[in-house]
Amino acid sequence: MSLAKGCVLCNQGAKMVLFVTGRCHRSCWYCPLSRERKGTDTVFANEQAVDIPAQIIQEAENMSALGTGITGGEPLLCLEKVTEYCRLLKTHFGPGHQIHLYTAKAPEDEELAEMQGLVDEIRLHPPRECWETILDSQFLRSAKQAKARGFDIGIEVPALPGLEYLVPALPYLDFLNINELEWGESNADQMRERGFELADEVHNAIEGAKGWAEKLCRYEKVHWCSSAFKDSVQLRERLKRIAHNTARPFDEITDDGTIVYGIYEPESGNASAAAAFFAERFEPDSYTVLPDKIETAWWLLEKHADELKGKKYVIERYPNGGMMVEMTPL
Ligand code: SF4
Question: More exposed terminus of the chain, fewer Cβ within 10 Å: N or C?
């Protein structure tokens, strides 16, 4: 199987996801964009909102990124921003920093010219209504022009009935990626209207989606990306990279790439007064004193819980101040 270069890095969790805009010229019924992101112009590097471009480099550094995937919304609606960020990334990390761009437009040759040398791989997302006539579509014209300009070029679509119509395009592509159709808060009503159901209670995959792609998977250029794989491998590997770069000495890194630590909130509300207890017993790098709390190794907090008056709990969260997963009081 020939995997897109961008996918190889994604599988290692080494790709930063750069979301450049929530605006889009299309309104696909299956659009997975969250309500918070849809229609906005906020930029996100992985899950971090970006105010200034330097934060993009910081996030890429945090995860030792080897590449970046540019997504949206529709990235070509803000091409200037895309080229600015790509230039920044290529200048900072070198030309080997692999960049792929996802687009639901068929890029014009002038747009391809602007991205040349900055974007390495383009993933076209032709709308379902043009799959039957893909060979006569603008997308195929763009694919040929992109190839001639030296881009790696592929199609990336969600698994929907009718995927077989894309087979005639394969000779013109480097790859065809099929993403398992995913249930989300913003497309749930549309899914129900069409009679789709969740395959199980754990993942967001749709019952039957794999079957629509199965026949195509025998083609060498076709790659199936399951919802479970995205969660269990790509995300976990990315979190681990971030955790190893950003964890404090007392944070425990789990096999899922989350971090676990303990929090002590003294009854008095004054952490510096309580800090003497820690200073007498523990190594300086096994805790940190904040104005109203002390953060430390969860096992140290558990061991000394009875000697400390106030609230004590163990936190599991995504690394680098990311989303909270679980809070367990001691
Ligand atoms: S092209 Fe992508 S971002 Fe735009 S509406 Fe369709 S799924 Fe959503």
Answer: N
- Six token digits for residue 49: 């909102």
Residue 193: other Cβ atoms inside 10 A: 9
pLDDT tens, residue by residue, 142-159: 999 999 999 999 999 999
User: Average pLDDT over the chain, rounded to whole?
Assistant: 92
Ligand 1 center–CA 24 separation, angstroms: 6
What would the two tokens of residue 207 be?
Answer: 């019952």
pLDDT tens-digit map of 225-248: 887 777 778 889 999 999 999 999
Distances (CA, A) of 283 to 26, 64, 188, 297: 56, 29, 51, 11
Closest ligand 1 atom, CA of 27? 5
Tens of pLDDT, residues 275-302: 999 999 999 999 999 989 999 999 999 9
Q: Which domains does the chain have, with CATH numbers?
A: 5-243 (3.20.20.70), 248-329 (no CATH)
75 lines ligand 1 (CB under 6 A): no
Ligand 1 centroid – CA 27 distance (Å): 6
Helix boundaries (H) for 116-234? 138-148, 188-193, 209-214, 227-229
26 lines ligand 1 (CB under 6 A): yes
Q: From the CA of 209, how far away is ligand 1's center (Å)?
A: 18
Choice from 31, 36, 187, 191 to test ligand 1 binding pocket (greatest atom count within 8 A of CB): 31
Q: Which pLDDT score, from 0 to 100, does residue 206 have?
A: 82
The 10 Å Cβ neighbour count of residue 304 is: 18
**Residue 1 in this model has a pLDDT that exceeds 70:** no
